[in-house]
């Protein structure tokens, strides 16, 4: 139920949709001669400036990405690696019959290096379908193909393909891994997504060494207003989705802390 509600909720609270909905509500009240429409227009305008003209999203992403800095793992004896799947568009890959990648592909390319570096580690790739649609080519099938193209022995990889969100990624993967108390597990996911994944794993009593990839922001950021409108909006949309996920998981008791 949570999966479907979260998708429907995001339709209304996606920043661009929210701005349009507020605008339509304002127009409606203006048409029926209710003065409240002025307040709604003001709120909409303030939100628009905060999202488009100010680097609000950039800061929120930077805050997430700098929670767990990238670690040096050369001298660590790793027992297992959990990779949270993403990076390949299975719908487009099936349609064009060639590998179509997206902006999170580092989860696979970086993890391929790790898999080769630790030949004795248990490897789990967790990547089901997080949409309402049912792809004809599943996420784990596409990942399997791409790993082979990168020279990885996929016989070593356990592909978990039932999960639909981050909570299920951790939950179902733990059932497969059955991690022991003294084992050292590496978690590979996008830097901005790592906080939520770690909080869920702590709740599930599964300790990880974070290995963030797919960084979106520089280590140094400017908080000055800019005319990079599309970039500002894109950053805010991605950041807002992740912070909303952190908040909703905390409210539902899937994590013990909001941040």
Protein architecture, described:
- The protein is an alpha/beta fold and 259 residues long.
- 51% of the residues lie in helices and 10% in strands.
- The protein has 10 helices and 5 strands.
- Strand 2, helix 7 and strand 3 form a beta-alpha-beta unit.
- Helix 2 packs antiparallel against helix 3, helix 4 packs across helix 10 and helix 8 crosses helix 9.
- The longest helix has 23 residues.
- It is elongated and about 70 Å long.
Features:
10% strand; five-stranded parallel β-sheet; 51% helix; 259 residues; 10 helices; alpha/beta; single chain; elongated
What's the total count of β strands? 5
> Strand content of the residues, in percent?
5-15%
Can you list the strand order of the major beta sheet?
3-2-1-4-5
N-C termini distance: 24 Å
The largest sheet, given as strand count, sense and whether it forms a barrel, is: 5 strands, parallel
Tell me the radius of gyration: 20 Å
Shape: elongated
Low-confidence stretches: none
Offer a concise description of the structure.
This protein has helices spanning 2-13, 15-31, 36-52, 56-65, 90-96, 106-117, 139-149, 166-177, 194-203, 229-251; strands at residues 80-84, 122-126, 157-160, 185-190, 208-213. The protein is of the alpha/beta class and 259 residues long. α7 links the parallel β2 and β3.
Secondary structure layout:
Elements: H1 2-13, H2 15-31, H3 36-52, H4 56-65, E1 80-84, H5 90-96, H6 106-117, E2 122-126, H7 139-149, E3 157-160, H8 166-177, E4 185-190, H9 194-203, E5 208-213, H10 229-251
Parallel strand pairs: 1-2, 1-4, 2-3, 4-5
Helix pairs in contact: 2-3, 4-10, 8-9
